[in-house]
Write a structure and sequence with these properties.
Elements lengths: L25 H10 L9 E14 L2 E15 L6 E10 L2 E10 L2 E6 L2 E6 L2 H7 L14 E9 L2 E8 L1 H12 L11 E11 L5 E14 L2 E14 L10 H6 L4 E2 L17 H13 L2 E2 L5 E6 L2 E6 L4 E6 L2 E6 L4 E4 L2 E4 L11 H20 L4 H5 L3
């Protein structure tokens, strides 16, 4: 079975472009790092690329991944900021694109064909990219180890925080998908890389965390990678043509989007109603005329959820694997397998049962991305 594999975006290898010109000891690195200022030099324009990836694994097999990639060009920051940005979100195979212009204090968004606007500051616009870009200087009592290299005035640091600080920083700064809001995260490994340019600007940070959570009594391994890189400081230009500006009058105010529009859903009162809403708003499922909910990977593969019969189905070409959460039973053709008792029909092969177990895990991960569990659905029966 083909799971929703997503190519994990490669974070730039440590200190690429930062070759050591001289040997710097750890104590010297700490002294130089402490002298960096959180206040940046005068910046009136810049370009930035961001990415964040959560990869979920169970018993060394990837179950799902969640990625956010963004790009933004901004100019006139000091007096009259203007910006253009794009954000690509891939939530376990379901993709969304948000394209936005920031002009005269208003953000104009296009999302899945809908155009809406919202007043905000440029700093609020930067926060939409979900990757922190403000400078953060860790104190010496927070740092376990620090390494430094320099080249052409660029100071490049690799930082390993103390264990309790590493967890605190993930929760407070880096956890853009709010994983820690619902689960107690245990940190196994981490590393942080930061770069300051010759003018003292904080221009790069990459973060790597290896973590674990317990979900449905199963240990899930999570790898989190994120980075941002600012370039073309005081050289970026943003040009919004007159035709585009004239089109801004057609954008509706965010507060006027009704509950039956694509961006905002009335989640309802029951677990089933809430799940249906979140499947559409968070995972881009489509509600079919038949009442089924479906999301396609391509023309040959898709997931289908049948709420009337309480089943989740993965289909590839003509082969369909189904999981019933009502009876905790998987099936494929003449093969049926009861997950609770381990009883299987005579036509079941080991490979088929393994695939059915994967399908059940897939459904649990879809529920996870909707902040729900199998117990939420079963309790309502």
């Amino acid at each position: 079975m083909k799971l929703r594999y997503i190519v994990i975006i490669c974070i730039t290898i440590f200190l690429a472009g930062c070759s050591a010109q001289n040997q710097i000891t750890s104590s010297q690195a700490m002294e130089i790092y402490a002298s960096q200022s959180a206040e940046t030099a005068s910046v009136d324009s810049f370009s930035v690329k961001t990415n964040a990836v959560y990869s979920f694994q169970y018993q060394n097999e990837e179950l799902a991944a969640y990625t956010i990639n963004g790009e933004m060009d901004a100019q006139g920051i000091e007096k009259k900021p203007t910006a253009y940005l794009e954000q690509n979100i891939n939530s376990d195979g379901s993709q969304s694109l948000i394209q936005s212009y920031y002009y005269e204090g208003t953000l104009y968004n296009t999302y899945n064909g809908m155009q809406y606007k919202e007043e905000m500051s440029l700093s609020d616009v930067e926060n939409i990219l979900l990757i922190p870009m403000n400078a953060i200087l860790f104190s010496s009592d927070q740092i376990e180890e620090i390494q430094m290299q320099t080249k052409n005035g660029m100071n490049c640091y690799r930082i390993h925080l103390k264990d309790d600080v590493a967890k605190e920083m993930f929760i407070e700064r880096y956890d853009c998908n709010h994983l820690s809001d619902n689960y107690d995260v245990s940190i196994n490994e981490h590393s942080i890389e930061q770069r300051y340019d010759e003018n003292g600007n904080f221009v790069y940070e990459s973060v790597h965390y290896e973590m674990g959570v317990i979900y449905q009594e199963k240990p899930i391994d999570i790898i989190y990678d994120s980075s941002f890189e600012k370039t073309n400081i005081n050289q970026t230009a943003v040009d919004i043509d007159e035709e585009t500006k004239n089109g801004f009058s057609q954008y509706i105010d965010y507060s006027e989007i009704s509950s039956d529009e694509e961006l905002v859903y009335d989640e309802g009162d029951t677990a089933e109603e809430i799940l249906k809403s979140r499947l559409k708003s968070q995972l881009n499922y489509q509600e079919l005329p038949s009442g089924l909910y479906q999301t396609n990977f391509n023309e040959n593969e898709y997931y289908t959820i049948d709420f009337e019969n309480q089943t989740f189905e993965y289909k590839r070409y003509s082969i369909a694997y189904s999981y019933s959460w009502k009876g905790d039973v998987g099936s494929m053709g003449a093969c049926t397998y009861n997950f609770a008792t381990g009883i299987k029909s005579s036509s079941c092969e080991d490979e088929t049962i393994e695939t059915l177990e994967e399908v059940k895990n897939d459904f649990e991960m879809e529920l996870y991305f909707c902040d729900m569990t199998l117990d939420d659905l079963i309790r309502e029966e």
